[in-house]
Batch of 2 targets.
Target 1
Amino acid sequence: MKKASRFSTKALVWLTALSLVFFFTAAASAGSYKKEYKMTLNVGPQFYWGMGATMFAKLVKQKTNGQINIKPYWGSQLLKGAQLKSPQMVASGVIDCAYESTINSTPVMPEMNIFSLPFFINNFKNLDKMEYGETGKAIFAVMRKKGLEPLAWAENGFRQVTNNKHEIHLPKDLKGLKIRVVGSPIFIDIFRKLGADPVNMNWGDAVTAFQQGVVDGQENPLPGVAVTVQIWQYQKYLTRWNYLVDPVIVYWNKKQFDKFPKDIQKAIREAAVESARFEKALCRAGIDDGSSLKILKDEFNYTPKITDPVAYARSKGMIVTDLTDAERQAFIDATKSLYDKWVPKIGKDLYEKAKADMAK
Ligand code: X2X
């Protein structure tokens, strides 16, 4: 009897100790996650890019069994509209993650201007070769050095110019037009070279400026942005010139990301890649060789409301201009000298990598 009771006392002590260890370990790991992870992006939920961000948050929650909850903060509200501050705020940890345009990263990482070199990339094939090639690797390495963990390439798209005055076929048609641009200096340079009068403005103020006619034009991708804000209400001339492209990158504060357990890291990364694949396909649907509509249907069982954004814009009264080769050449010639200024800022190495990727 005595022996048995001694044994059970010992067992009880052990059991208690063990359960305390379990309790504290569980409490510590539960406590190591925040209640809410803040995500910044420059647009609202109704934009394709916003839909990608919503999907990312949903997938992260699913794949981490509810452990990681991301809250999207739309329209750069955490930055009071100052869209160009996103990478800096994520790097400092004030914001946890971002689903954000590469243009908005250019003040912190001038290398991102590789996508803004005028008439350099021109089509989706070239862009993909860069993103998934040596250029993409080099850009991700730059991000890591800045304290950001890149997770996936999403998209805003090739940017097209719209205005409320007349069709744009040649640089002379831009002369004197007041064009809203993002506050990234290469945009000012390009439009000045083309003879326009660029004004930089945060996106949060831009739509009011369109409504009030404070500006004559703007430049943004057609499917993901111009259609969403129904640009034809203010500006009915659209020139599809693919002059530069705006990828979106999903990224996280690196210090925080590195501290997550491996399974959480994997879940977040997979959610980013999956949502980005969906979002990229949305942005390209109806303006590529048909593969994006197929991806949406086959992989996501999804058919977008607008399957032909150009026809849709025309149906709303837009005059859509595609450039002839000679017209396009006139724009290339007019902006070529900007490479002398911008390639050194971007880095000659990265520029060569991009050319090599595209040539593959
Ligand atoms: O400000 C813009 O034009 C937008 C929405 O495209 C970006 O955030 C770069």
Note: Strands lie at 37-40, 70-73, 97-101, 148-163, 178-181, 197-200, 217-220, 237-253, 319-322.
Target 2
Amino acid sequence: MIPLNSNFESKPVGLDVEKIRKDFPILDTQVSGRQLVYLDNAATTHKPVAVIERMKKYYESENSNIHRGVHFLSQLATKEYESAREKIRGFINAGSTREVIITRGATDSINLVAQSFGRKFIGAGDEIIISEMEHHANIVPWQMLCESTGAVLRYIPINDNGELILEKFDVLLNSRTKLVSVTRCSNALGTINPVEYIIEKSHQQGTPVLIDGSQSIQHGTIDVQKLDADFFVFSGHKLYGPTGTGVLYGKEKYLREMPPYQGGGDMILNVSMEKTTYNDLPYKFEAGTPNIAGVIGLGAAIDYINSIGMDLISAHEKELTRYALTGLSSIWQVILIGEPKNRAPVFSFILEGIHPHDIGTILDFEGIAIRAGHHCAQPVMERYCIPATARASFAVYNTFEEIDKLVLGIRRVLEVFS
Ligand code: C6P
């Protein structure tokens, strides 16, 4: 795909975007008589036919509850569900499926760690370090834990470019720190954080680290063993998979020691009226009937990504990122919120004197979907003294032409308000 902006030198990455776009029927949607330009991928990505069809197949010919029945359908559904878990394991390179807990999403995964690990290992006077750029899902569960235990929450500050100030992290980390929980990539700034450094430093004093991979899992290969994260969380719906699915990877040495988060069916070995013994990993943390169709759909999303190749996806998105930076910088009124050296295909911006909701609404008239608001990252807004930003975020199916439309759309917003 050739970029329209002639000042931009594109590096061909060998990804057939037009072919990929055909896998996503929703991209044909017309909005206000125009072809949809979907740039709200950090909120959720669209689903390829392979995922939609896989879930349909489950409901048409495999539907049954799992881990419970001796009958044919139940065994089939169990096999497909567990095969999806194995695909997830392979995708993140976890050492064992015992370390792959299936949840409802990243939020659910972080709450699980806060309530299970937190209540067992964190007490009054202990400290938890997060950062100023976390999504609320990686703030509120820790605040709740601190309220109930008397632990203290510390924040790594960010500089004007939207990068973590690591020297401050070095100072915050001390013998009272019982957990560090940071995002690999900010949903509000696009910053990719040097989590390898944070993990190494924390481990030097035996402190475990949770990495929120919600905004990074879809953009590059992840190897949790190499990264050496103690916990790694993400949601399926940002990875071309269904909503209501998510993953908590945890090192077995921690998961074994952690008590169950919720009680109910499937997480037990035996229940009497006096006492319950819990199931093995990973089932100990999976109470109740899960989103079976969704998890099988997530397995199909992983197959789909693997069939394209994560390296190609990353290379294409890097080109889109460079192109968007050129395009957005060509409009002097665009103020980027966050100008990190290392960024994901996520751009937050404001236009002086125009509320981001107005930007979003006018772009919507042009068929362009972006997100406007605080992006569930209010401390970031507070840091920059703004109420909200407009945010454009890209995925594998986006094109240079769509970025041109965004740039033209922003010029249109400026015209309307001039
Ligand atoms: N961010 C966004 O538009 P859930 O809602 O559980 O799938 O994901 C929560 C979450 C956690 N961490 C980060 C870094 C995130 O970006 C998100 C979700 C969406 O930015 C919805 S608010």
Note: Residues 166 and 197 are 9 Å apart (CA to CA).
